[in-house]
Amino acid sequence: MTSRGPVPVPGELTFTAPRRAKPPRHLADLAPADRRALAGELGEKPFRAAQLATHYFEHLADDQEQMTDLPKATRGRLVEAMLPQLLTAVRHLDCDDGATRKTVWRLFDGATVESVLMRYPGRVTMCVSSQAGCGMNCPFCATGQAGLTRNMSAGEIVDQVVAGARMLRRGEFSGGPDHQQRISNVVFMGMGEALANYRSAVQAVRTLVAPQPDGLGLSARNLTMSTVGLVPAMRKFAAEGLPVTLAVSLHAPDDELRDTLVPINTRWRVAEVLDEARHYFEVTGRRISIEYALIRDINDQAWRADMLGTELNRRGRGWVHVNPIPLNPTPGSKWTASDPRVERTFVERLRAHGIPTTVRDTRGREIDGACGQLAAVTA
Questions:
Q1: Per-residue confidence band for 87, with pLDDT thresholds at 50, 70 and 90
Q2: Annotated catalytic sites, by residue?
Q3: Model pTM?
């Protein structure tokens, strides 16, 4: 069953998703101590957990026959219990001269999600999904209009990155200006509102940044957590001690319009969201990204750029950066991108307020892999 409309918020941080069977427990769902305990429960020595983690996070192995340091007699049982298959690739779609790859994944219960792997000069970025669908109901976003199917587990989130790293290492994704073989950046900007799936998203972050072989060994500073502005979750995330960049999908500086574009705004207003974003900066020292999809004749007026600049400067200088994003239309949608001249004016007005502003490089348009386009259509 798929829910429609905003996810109910009965409590401070409680977001209700449809009840479904849980994904198989995976090594990436667990802290190292819990992995060792699980190995013991399976009748194995605790160090087997570290061996499995090495195969998964360092060797990127997906074939148990490669794990020759595990006892042959119990290898299959260990792998099945601690490294179950979480994702099955349905299809890959490449564009941007081979520098962008979208993958549609089928999860254990038939739900589908998408991730996007992108090469840039000097870095490789993976955009991951945190939910199958999304309950935030933003009308210009294909994922939001599809509704929420379920939350993803930490293992399912991490496995997208491991799968992307495996593609790179095996030369299955080799386009782009260089041939860097490691994922350097991860952005939680795929399907779903990650902070509405708080526990799994934070566990995934901790696993991604844990040193190998406990995790993938990524730099927390190269991770970006995106949110539409779930204020209590933003406050809680600031206290996690993780120097991750926070990206706030604002899309309007005024409550009247944002109530329509981002319906959760009826619960947490623009001022509350920006105050909490400023608090995150103060706690972590990480500059906030404000994401602003420019929609023709809806939110792209010069006076709204002035209003946004004023609101940001009211909370100080040097704490924020704005990313205007040319909207990527989805089939059948009435929403479309701003005229380039209007976009330029919007950017100029923000910069006139002293706000660092960079128009987002929109990758994956040809394959419906750009911001707001992910819908996991498999037919």
A1: very high
A2: 114, 371
A3: 0.91
Domain boundaries along the sequence of the chain = 27-82, 88-367
Please provide the CATH number assigned to the domain covering 88-367.
3.20.20.70
Q: What is the pLDDT of residues 243-296, one digit of tens each?
A: 999 999 999 999 999 999 999 999 999 999 999 999 999 999 999 999 999 999
Backbone angles phi, psi at 326, to 5 degrees: -60, 120
Q: How far apart are CA 160 and CA 216, in angstroms?
A: 12
If one counts every other C-beta atom within 10 angstroms of the C-beta of residue 331, the result is 9
Q: Which residues pair with 103 in a beta bridge?
A: 92, 115
The whole-angstrom separation of Cα 104 and Cα 92 is 7
Instruction: Tell me the one-letter amino acid at 366.
Output: E
> Residue length, the chain?
379
The burial of 138, by beta-carbon neighbours within 10 Å (0-12 exposed, 13-18 middle, 19 or more buried), is given as buried
- List the beta strands (DSSP E) in 121-217: 123-127, 131-133, 148-151, 185-188
- Interstrand relation of 112-120 and 123-127 (parallel, antiparallel or unpaired): antiparallel
> What is the C-alpha separation between 90 and 127, in angstroms, rounded?
17
Q: What is the DSSP string of 69-137?
A: TS-HHHHHHHHHHHS----EEEEEEEETTTTEEEEEEE-TTS-EEEEEEEEETTEEEEE--SEEE-SS-
Percent of the chain at pLDDT > 90 equals: 76
Q: At what angle do helices 198-209 and 154-169 cross, to 10 degrees?
A: 40
Torsion sign over Cα 310, 315, 321, 327: negative
What letter does residue 29 receive in the DSSP assignment? G
Residue 345 has pLDDT above 80, yes or no: yes
Question: Which of 189, 286, 290 is CA-nearest to residue 241?
Answer: 286
In whole angstroms, give the CA distance from residue 193 to residue 51: 33
CATH 3.40.50.300 for domain 27-82: no
Per-residue pLDDT tens for 290-315? Answer: 999 999 999 999 999 999 999 999 99
